Structures are given as structure tokens and as C-alpha cells.
Amino acid sequence: MNLFMRASARAHRIGGWLERRFAFDSRRNVIVAALAAMGVAALVSLLRGQDSNWDLRNYHLYNAYAWLTDRIALDLAPAQMQTYFPPLIDLPYFLLAPRWPMATAALLGAWHGLAFVLVSGIAWLALAGRTDRARLAPVLGLAGCLSAVFLSELGNTMGDDTTAPLVLAALLLMLWKAASGRASTWAPWLAGVLLGLALALKLTNAIYAIALGLAVLAGPGPWKRRIAHAASLTTATVAMFALLAGPWMWRMWRTFGNPLFPQFNAWFQAPLAQPLSVADQRFLPHGIAEAVLRPLSSTADPFLISEIPMPQLVWASLYLLLVGGLCIWVVRRMHGAQPTAFDDDGNGSARMVLVFLGAAFAIWLGMFSIHRYLAVAEMLGPLAIWLLARRLLPSRWGARVAGLAIAGCVAAVLAGMWVIGWKGWGHSGWHDTAFRVEAPVMEQPSRASVLLVGDEPHSWRVPFLPPEAMYASVASNFPESPAYAQTLAQRVAQRGGPVYALMVAHVDIERERRQRKLERAESSNAWAARFGLDRGDCKLMVRLAKNRRVDLARVGTAEGVRCRLVLPPEPADTGLAALDAAAVVAAQEKLARYGFALVPDSCRRHEAFVGAEPFPYQWCKVAAVAP
């Protein structure tokens, strides 16, 4: 009993120390919390390894390279449909990562970690009137950052976490403006600048731009003032977006006839692409019933809204809380109970947060229904659970239900990450050079054409291949029209030089594991030799050999007998050549649709790496086929 009381007292003292140090009751604590969050996020980004996600290999690297070297008129969709996305967001990574991969990852992680203090600030404003908001705000901010999307993209280049601080800062400014009630009008303009920057960097942030405008209209104060603030916000957003993304969209309009090429081509009818509205419709719900139940169904089956499983409970919790809470609220109103207010001091911040979140989710559901685009909304999920529970449930139950729901949401995400792994969208081991490509021999590169075959991400290799050649995708995810194949044939004929095909090569997983094990063994040998642990009975080396399931050999040297960790003999061939040959056959069928054929026995395998992970490719000669 005494032991339990001492443990409880110690836990109370630790909790009190944490509250004094990290509660948002002073500017110093806010700064310390922000720096701590950014530092932890940077460390986690480094621990996860080199970013190697599909989008990075498909277009993030190539798009920045193509913009800087003006390849728009030379190449033809080498990064598939995503070739023509605005490249501004990709420039910093392209300029920094190839030379300083680890420093770039740390900087990216630190920037993502800034979201913690912004979510906490939003919670602090939305909890106006509560005496404990200085303690609750960082807790809800931490819970928001322990969301599925944020953790899965922490430190990577996919852009949702990267633009999230800009959207959150815009929301925070508008909440502060509503809460302060001051006459100054600079806040809506600055919020619009941040929102326009987020939109120019990643077009999917349009859902948050619309949602924030609706939230401002739902804020406190007279309609005239709310409309004025919404107008200022919208004007600044459009102006900033036009300034940053306008030149690129104008270039797309002049080159292809569609400023958003190839998306929304049903409106613009650009000749090279099919007349489709949104290219990626894989995750959109079919029918109203499926849309209404999507928060529940996507929780049960994460693959309904994502290519990788990202377990979460926040949307199901909000859905059930809203439905159940509304039923309780109706019953209470029928019995004459008075409704509680969203904000004790009437500043409208809680209402604005809930309108922002609800509008963003509804727009997302109709436009994309892709989980990772909900990064910002999902970070605000725990705060929304707290606000709804306190509003819709009886006062004695609201805090308990909200606390349990938020704890369950965090536990589900962490358990899912533990089971599935922290690699998320793709990470590899670190290497001094982020990207390495073994370049093939290319005859007459100034006249050559290279066909990137299939929907695998090939274009990340282009910056490391001869820049004089033309690179074009075939049989990719680009929504090709008949004019696409005609344009490709014309460009190849005009260049008049050799034609090559670049296609996938398979990786021997067991061989790669063996290579990593060999690298660890060589590292252990080097450290053992440095400290003289490889001599005599070699007790530590024997233990390492047993733990790492490798052999121990005694090698004679000029200085005597030394112990070394060695690998057992390499197993027999796993059929890698047969897999590559099958890929060649598949590529032959795809190229035939464009009037090309692979030259027999011309394919050669070349190595390429993202960090320490191999992404080899095959390089083949191509000949035109007579019609």
C-alpha cells in the first residue's frame, strides 16, 4: 500500500512538473513545446530512413528537374499523369536532398513537427472560457499529431504534411481574429497569403480553402463583417495562388490547352489526353448510401480510401458521436433541457473549427476520397471529438466520453503503426548519396528517344541520364488519347536517332537481405578490429555471430589469427532472370501498340538506388515496326 501511495505521489509530481513546463500558459512554454516537437519530429524522420515513396520516384524529383532545365517541350509525360503537376513544392528537396540527404530529412521532419504547436493553438482558442485550456490544448495538439496520415507522411515528400502547417496557420489566424474582435484587418489578408501558398504548392488544398471561407462566414459578429473577412481571405488566397501557380498554369494552357493538364480535361478538351474530369477516381464512393457510411466503412477497411492500410478510429468516432449525440440532444430538448453553448465566452471559435472540419470532409468525400488528403482535418479530429462531446452529451459524460474516444483513436493509430511498420509509403537505408543511377551507353544522345514503359515510376532516373535525349512514357497511367501516340511517333521520327526502352527490373529480395547482412557483418568486423576484440577467444564475436545468424571464421593475417563474421555460401539462383525476361515480353506487347518493337537480345540490366534500396532497370534497343 505504501509503495502504491509513493508511486502515485511521484506520478502526481511528474504530472505537475510537465504541466508547469509544457502547459500553454506562457510564451516560454509555447516556444519550448514547439522546439521540442520539431526536434522529436526531425529525429523520427532520420530514424525512418531515406524517403523512397512512389510519388518521389515518379514525379517529385523529375518535375523539379524538368522545370529548372525547361524540358516541358522536349519530354512527353515521363512522370506519367503527374508530370504536369505544379513543381514549386519539389524544388527545395531536389536542390538539397541529392547532396545532403540526412540534413534534408531532418529539416523536413522539423517543419512537419511545427504542426503540433499550431493544432495546440487552435485548440487553445476553441476552448475559450475553460480554466484548464492551457493544459488541454497541448494534449489535444499531441493527439492530433498522432494521427494516421500525419505519422505515415512524417519526413517524406508527398506534400500533405508539408503544406499542413500553412493551412493550420491560416485557420489559427482567422480564429484569433474572431476571438479578438479587433478592428485590424491584416489577419484575413495574411491568412489568405498562407492559404494561397498552400494551394499553389499542392492543389488538393482547395478543399481547405473552401472550408475556411465557410468557417469564416459561420463565425461570430455581424454578417457584414463576416462577409468582409471572407472576401479579404478569398482575395488574398486567389492573388497568392495566381502569383505562384499562375505562370505554370499559363504555360500548361499555351502548351497543351489545359491549365490543369491532364486533369479536368472534360472541361478543356486538350487533344493529348482523354476528356476526363478527375483522373484518379479509384476511391470515390458509389452512390449516396456509400458516401454517408464512408466514415464507418473506411475505418473497417482502410483500403477503401488508401493504397496502404492506415488504421484510424477518428472518423468513425466523430460519426458515431455526432449521430448519438444528436439523438440525445433531441431527447433532452423534448424534455425542456436548455442547450449548452459551443463557447463559454461566445467568441465562436469552436463553431468555426467544426464548420471547417465538416465542410472539408464533405468536399473531400465528393472530390477525392483519398485518405492522405485529410492530413489537416485528421489532426483536428481529437479537438472536434472533445468539442462535440461537450456540446452534445450531458456535462457529466462529455469529458469522459471524449477522453476515452481520443485515447482510443491514438491507441488504434499507434497499434496499427506497430503492426504494419513505420516505413509507411516507403523508406530505405541511408547512403551518402540519395540517388545513384548506373547510366547506360547511349548512342547519339542529342537525337535519341527513350520510352519509359509501363506504370512503374521510372522518371526519377532521368536527371542522372543524358539530358540531350527525349524521354516519354508509354502504357502508363497518363490518360492517353489517340493523338498522344501520334505525337509520340512524330517526335521520335523528327529526332531521327536511336530509340531505347527503359523498363522495370526485378529485385532479388533474399539477395538484398543478404547484402544488408553482409554490410552489418563488415561493420562489426571493422569495429572489432578497431578495439582489438577480434583476437584471442573472440567471445564478443562469437555472441554476435549467434545473434545475427552468421558464421564465424578465423582468418590468418600478417599480425596473427583474427576472427571475422562471414556469411554462409550464397543460395542457388532464385529465378530473377526469368522474372526480367517476363517483363521484357510484357513490354514488347505494350510497345507494339505504338508501332515499336524491342530488338532481340538487346536488353541489359543496370543498377540504380534510392538511398540504400535498389531499384534496378532494364535498358533495351527499340526498332520501329512497319505498319
TrEMBL record:
Segments spanning the bilayer are 30-47, 102-127, 134-151, 230-250, 313-331, 352-367, 373-389, 401-422
Which superkingdom is the protein from? Bacteria
Q: Keyword set for this entry?
A: Membrane, Transmembrane, Transmembrane helix
- What's this protein's name? DUF2029 domain-containing protein
